[in-house]
Specification:
By secondary structure, the chain is α/β, with parallel strands linked by helices. The protein is built from 25 helices and 23 strands. About 35% of the residues are buried.
């Protein structure tokens, strides 16, 4: 099949977007390839199509677990076999998934970078027939990128497993420094190719408003710009407050943040995507992987920490390429808050050591114990328990991760899963021997097919309804059957996972890079300065964003607030000059009353005419003869 046949068969498209075909052909020619496509630019097709055209499996590395799950679901719906490996999965479940990738016909294995630190996973990848390594969100490998993930630094070692397999690195946000860093860190070959589509989004009008009364201005904007909208706020508390304010003023709105249960977040997201609610008020936990093309407005109530984050979030507007707006509200106090946040929230070496020490206490690990141990981690509970600043603790964990003491996955929702771990015959004998389990097992198998071959998602509520039982009874049955070694039951989870890469050490003796910690703090200040420049500049907003990403030849967008204001100013000057010439001509003929002159003037509104005539009076070009109440030319001009 040809790449266009695959595109039509599985995605229903007749043609590719710009650069997609070039990137796909580069991959098929076995080139290491770096693809820079803007948010919503169709990055996934760039590795999915070449992988489908070749025998074997494509290994996709991504830090975005929600996006990995969405893509696996989407591929499965298209009849393409895909599997993911993420934190929270049980060892037996992982083992079966890896077996399917080695011996089965799985075409895509989505894997978090943390999982690649496992010797078991790396050993099994060695035996897979890999046709491509796709590194999504590749900017995470750069320590100078805005979302550095230490776990990405080990990805180049995948080449040792399959030296001839090409790498495709994909990202939507990368400066020149970061682009170079990606290629070096992934050990790209000398003949590697780089494809970059301009980050310019011509359909988005960027607007920055200096505003103290943000609630009032938010209502004004939403009443003026119709359609689906996202409103980003600073913290969880504000999501609730702003959503309530909008609802009280007749605008359907909901709120979203990472502290909500996964089922609630999923329901809120679905309702917003289906337009049951017009506005989603959220923290930056919302939006990654959300493919809603008709978002007309993305509004930030406060400036973001970096321009990379702003470009990503604002870029969720107008993916259908129709007119959309990215509005940022700021007050001078916001910039002071951001600067203070940077200074306060970058931890000292002593503070990092303290966090590491309390991690051991939190999980009750003895010194010398815990190597390779993965545990569900509640960051908020941990910080509350030891009275720690949450943001500072997150930074401390990242420094510990870079130093290879721990790894930390993002929060992930996994539904309950179960697998029958005995043969059909053994299960039948068990049902005969223990008849009180018989009805339960029959219902479980009837509701959930395929349980003998793999872990399948189960719904305890659905099982309870079919058996007229309480959910707690169903869970007890599942747990007892697990103890009896009849099945393996994995309850649903909605936590990030923390893994101790090394056994716990005395915190006084952990090795930390003092210079690197200082550099990261200085870099955060530089990124903050770029945000301040963006909000306070009087230059084209789009040009400033593009220059930040090293596109120094971008033209003025013509649609941001600065460009529109300049157009309006030019127009006003043109109108003024026209009125000036007309007025002089009419008054040369004879003196005229103000009303008579205004009636004779053309090509302007009444207000524009009045403003121009008054300005010319103030400049002394005309004089008012008060005895006759008429305007005359000033002979001395």
């Amino acid at each position: 099949m040809h790449i266009h046949d695959i595109l039509r068969q599985y995605w229903g498209h007749a043609s590719f977007r710009p650069l997609q075909e070039d990137i796909i052909n580069s991959v098929l020619q076995k080139n290491d390839t770096l693809a820079l496509l803007p948010t919503g630019g169709g990055k996934s097709i760039c590795f999915q199509i070449p992988a489908l055209l070749q025998t074997g499996i494509c290994v996709v590395v991504s830090p975005l677990i929600a996006l990995m799950k969405d893509q696996v679901d989407n591929l499965t719906q298209r009849g393409i076999k895909a599997q993911y490996l993420i934190a929270g999965m049980g060892k037996r479940e992982i083992d079966i998934a890896l077996d399917n990738c080695v011996y089965g016909d799985i075409k895509f294995l989505y894997i978090s970078p943390e999982r690649l630190s496992s010797d078991l996973v790396r050993e099994r990848i060695k035996y897979m027939n890999v046709n491509l390594f796709a590194i999504d969100e590749a900017h995470c490998i750069s320590e100078w990128g805005y979302d550095f993930r230490p776990s990405y630094l080990s990805l180049s070692s995948l080449r040792e497993l399959h030296p001839q397999v090409p790498f495709l690195a994909l990202t939507a946000t990368a400066t020149h420094h970061v682009r170079t860093d990606i290629q070096e860190k992934l050990n790209f070959r000398k003949d590697a190719l780089v494809f970059q589509k301009s980050f310019e989004r011509k359909n988005i009008s960027y607007v920055v408003l200096n505003e103290e009364n943000k609630y009032r201005r938010l209502l004004q904007i939403l009443n003026k710009i119709s359609g689906s909208s996202i409103v980003y706020v600073r913290n969880r508390k504000e999501t609730v407050a702003v959503a309530q304010h909008l609802s009280q003023n007749g605008i359907s709105a909901d709120f979203y943040h990472a502290g909500l249960e996964a089922s609630i977040r999923s329901d809120k997201q679905t309702r917003w995507k289906n337009n049951a609610n017009r506005v989603m008020v959220c923290t930056n936990a919302f939006g990654m992987g959300i493919d809603k093309p008709d978002v007309r407005l993305v509004l930030h109530m406060t400036p973001p920490d970096t321009l990379e984050a702003y470009y990503q979030e604002a870029g969720r507007a107008g993916r259908d390429e129709k007119k959309a707006y990215a509005v940022l509200l700021y007050a001078h106090s916001d910039c002071l808050y951001l600067e203070d946040k940077i200074k306060k929230n970058y931890p000292s070496v002593a503070e990092i050591q303290f966090v590491y020490h309390q991690l051991g206490n939190y999980f009750q690990l003895a010194i010398g114990a815990g190597e390779g141990l993965s545990l569900a981690f509640d960051l908020i509970d941990f910080c509350s328990h030891y009275k720690l600043n949450t943001t500072k603790t997150i930074h401390a964990l990242k420094f510990l991760e870079r130093a290879a003491y721990i790894t930390l996955s993002e929060s992930v929702f996994l539904p309950s899963r179960a697998k029958i771990i005995v043969s059909n015959e053994v299960l039948y004998q068990f049902q005969l021997q223990y008849p009180h389990y018989d009805n339960f097992l029959k219902n479980l198998l009837r509701l959930n097919g395929g349980m003998f071959s793999q872990y399948v998602p189960i719904k305890e509520r659905e099982i309870a309804r079919s058996l007229s039982m309480d959910i707690s009874e169903v869970v007890n049955y599942l747990k007892r059957l697990t103890i009896e070694n009849i099945l393996s039951y994995l309850p649903q989870t909605d936590k990030p996972y923390l893994t101790f890469v090394q056994a716990r050490r005395d915190a006084k003796y952990i090795q930390l890079d003092y210079i690197y910690i200082k550099q990261r703090r200085e870099q955060a200040i530089q990124k903050f300065d770029a945000v301040v420049k963006y909000v306070e500049s009087r230059h084209c907003r789009s040009q400033i964003l593009l220059q930040y990403f090293d596109d120094n030849h971008a033209e003025r967008c013509g649609v941001c607030d600065i460009c529109i204001a300049e157009k309006r100013q030019v127009k006003q000057k043109t109108i003024f000059a026209k009125i000036q010439h007309q007025s002089i001509d009419f008054l040369k003929e004879k003196p005229r009353s103000l009303q008579e002159l205004l009636n004779l003037l053309t090509g302007a509104t009444h207000q524009e005419k009045l403003y121009a005539v008054r300005a010319m009076l103030d400049a002394g070009e005309f004089v008012l003869d008060s005895s006759q109440n008429v305007l005359k030319l000033n002979k001395h001009q």
